[in-house]
Amino acid sequence: MNDLSRRRILQGALLGAGALTLNACRNPFSASSGSAGGSSSGPVVFGVSAPMTGDSAEYGAIWKKAFDLALAEANQAGGIGGRKIQVDVQDSQAAPRQAVTIAQKFASDDRIVAELGDFASPASMAASSIYERAKLTQFGITDSHPDFTKGGEYVWSNAQSQNDAAKSQADLAHKHGKRHAVVYLDTDWGATVWKIYEKSAKANGDTITYSSGFIASSTDFRPTLIKARQSNPDMLVIIGYYKDAALLTQQARSVGFEKLPIVIANSAYSPQFLALGGTATEGVRLSTTFFADEPRPEVREFVKKWRGRYKETPDMFAAGAYDAINILIWAAKKHGATREGIHQGLLKGKDIPSVSYGPLTFGPDRRVAGARFLEVVVKGGKYVLADGAE
Amino acid sequence: MLSILVSGVINGGAYALLAVGISLIFGVSNLINLAQGSVFAVGALTGWWLIAEMHWPLWAAVIGVVLFTGLLGLVINVLAVQPLAGAPPIAALLATFGVSIILENAAQLVFSPETRRFPQLLSSDDFEVAGVRFGTLHVVILTITAVVIAALAAFLRHHRLGQAIRATAQDRQAAAQMGIPVRAVDNAAFVLASALGGLAGVFVGMYVSNINPTIGAMAVFEAFTAATLGGLGNMPGAIVGGLLLGIAEAFGIAQWGDGARQLITFTVLIAVLWLRPSGLLGKARTLAAEPMTGTFFGSGTPYRLHRRQAAALIVFAVAVAPFLFSDYVLEVGAQILVFAILALSLTLLAGNAGQMSLGQAGPLALGSYASALLTTRIGLGFWTALLVSGVVAAVVSVVLVAPSWRLRGHYVAIATLGTGMMVAAFMLNADWLTGGPQGISGIPQPRILGFRFETPATFYLLNLVVLLLVIGVVRRLQNSPLGTVWSAIREDEVAVRSAGVNAASYKSLAFAIGGFIAGIAGSLQAHQYGYIDPSVFNMQISLLAVTIVVLGGISSPLGVVLGSIVLVGVPELFRDLQDYRMLFYGLVLVLLVRFRPQGLLGRAADTSGGAVRGVLRTAPRRDTA
């Protein structure tokens, strides 16, 4: 490499550097750098940090569908004060390292008035301090980790804390037997649910006959399930998402769980569970906050719109994401499409409309309290409300 | 007992089918093909599409998939692997890694990322042994594996092309001199192996029943372990290895739970390499004496800055950049610097001692966890923890890798890959120490004299200072007599050993220093995120470090910084490409390896052998002193 091209590289580098965002008039070493955020003209933009590639990409794809549906409706109805609403979706692969970068990108971007995500609690929680510092609302859709909203005043979620969801799963299992064999996804989420489940089950006087974590990328669960069966349980309890639960259910039926009840986590509520699991899913039970055939008008309308647009039945993730963005839009309409406006909207809002909860109000822990759980069972290849449930 | 054995055999049959392709390519082209898992995933998805959407019968779909993936193999070899024939094996390995990223993400775009059910054309529950139901499908998988291997054996023994493949595998140069078109033989091996990968995709796809574009990612390592267990390059060995791994996993999982799966897989891999590197059925052959990195990289003239240019760059980076750039750019900058430090851990080892490590995620994880535990459990200060975590990473990784030094070439690299993955698998399983899957949170931010590091600018500066210190140490070592000994080992290990130098100890020393540097990078990372869990330290991280150091010019510390800017920064630049982001990243990776295998700034230079002569003159004295 000769001197000329060396100089050219240096020049290019400097030019490129100059072209990047110039942030004068600020102290980059001080932590108090909250931006006002949200210009008053142009579109209103929500940032989304979500896995669009990698192992969890399919959940990110569901979110994207939910946002597209919600935005189409909201923009049809005139947006926010005549301004169009948009989402800026950034791919995090649900990895903390990338979620942190995205958080910094959104925090530095004045167009962004609030953020949605990330999918996995570890990624979301790694980013929380950045959102908090920027006074930018971080709205978790699936972040059920009990500590997530403790990350700061600007950290909110419409997901059930696992303190409630795992307990309701344990209560449901309690109704069907006293000896539980439990397998849980070996991630932060799964391990957290499992700990709360174990505590709740013991409080109910039930016995855990077997427990083991499992890895999402595993394809053969037979050895684990054989061991679980040998512990002589009344039922199998699966703490995992739909694709894990479907595989586990199929294999469980081939190693001696043919007749025993199987109870799955509410996160596995999805038509995909039925499609992937086939006939093995017959008789599987779960408790869920969202049930597509629930007669409530909000649910009926949402399911109808989703089926009309995507020719499929929406699941937990779809309903959660659709609610989340609509809650932010509602807050922006009430208190202004700025970072602070949305924060105020969530803080002061009462009876915010939603599909999963009906009219909701956030508690002091920035979560929604008092969700009703419905017991659902698979019958004839479909989810139906269990007998005796409302 | 019997039921677990049966389930292990069923699963092992699937591993065996996958392992055959990997073993074949390794035997013929002496290449670790990381793309085999993605070809397998593409085969599964194509099979699903032909059967579920196009309603082809099974036999037609199998033929269609085999033709398609065979063609895919040809394309991979011609475009990505063969042009690197003159380059060291590590370049080809990185190229196949790039191809696997491209295939996986292309498959996500074409087929959408969702998991789907593979049509169950063969019954999977019509037999029962010891309470375990299995079916025609599982019998068919085992039969197909056996038939394929018998057919392959007959082909290799009797057909002219098969004989050419064997000749090439035995001695590439001799084969070429006898008029065998070795490039065409490589093509044939790739086509065969990829067709087998596709075949495995259809049947294993049916076996696991739920498939998506990322199913190949882990499968490739399990298949690779199975192939190593049976003996790399040995076809019947692939069956034996697959079945044994399946059985070992089944019993291990029954004992410790499914979370231990990866720990079992990689422990088996390491144990084989320690005890019987040629595998159960492989003949103990003289292992290729070619170091992974080759002399080609090491002797590339490193690009050097003048003192004044370096000073100007440092002043710019320290005093101007934090004020010039947004927090977002500085955050990316801080990450670029951490990865530059991680990649520098390879500079002495790979660039000078000529030994590549594919498992630097291991010491990175050790450093992260050590630092996190020391500060949160014992209340040690950040700065002490930083140094201690470097030491911990160095000691543990040396102990784990030391028995592998008697191996050569690819086998050491495979051993480092295994140890790297084993460390993360251990972190996942050692709940009592590491919090298992929940990781460790609340790791305190660094402080100095009451000043808290919490903004991107402060982390950026902290990392920059550490990076400059590390560069200083690495350059000093490179120019020391020690550096000369390492270079001599790289250029001609046999000669150096004949001169009475204990090459393994010197390599261990390089590995220890590398482990220390990687451990420091891990500590920095842990304190910046405040949270770590085992999923952070995956294979991608290890390969990213390798790619950075290769593209940076393997022995040039400055090049490493540039490589890190390109490889950590580029995915950020591609953010606007949305779903196409990782696809383009894979393309850039393949193109960079293809056109700049000697590094972005490096320049290939001829080997003078100067370092070896230097050691031959001085080494005996040094060793006895």
From TrEMBL, chain A:
Top-rank lineage group of the source organism: Bacteria
Keywords: Amino-acid transport, Signal, Transport
Stored Gene3D superfamilies: 3.40.50.2300
CDD domains: PBP1_ABC_HAAT-like
Alphabetized InterPro entries for the sequence: BCAA_transport, Leu-bd, Leu_Ile_Val-bd, Peripla_BP_I, TAT_signal
Claim: Ribonucleoprotein is one of the keywords in the record: no
Signal peptide: none
The keyword Ion transport appears for this protein: no
Domain Leucine-binding protein: 43-369
UniProt family annotation: Belongs to the leucine-binding protein family.
Name of this chain's protein: ABC transporter substrate-binding protein
From TrEMBL, chain B:
Coiled-coil segments on the chain, per record: none
Subcellular localization: Cell membrane
CDD domains: TM_PBP1_LivH_like, TM_PBP1_LivM_like
Residues that span the membrane, as ranges: 6-27, 34-52, 58-79, 91-111, 131-156, 188-208, 263-282, 310-326, 332-350, 380-402, 409-428, 457-474, 509-529, 541-568
Domain of life, source organism: Bacteria
Organism: Actinomadura vinacea
Principal place of residence: membrane
Membrane topology: Multi-pass membrane protein
Entry protein name: ABC transporter permease
Keyword Ribosomal protein among record annotations: no
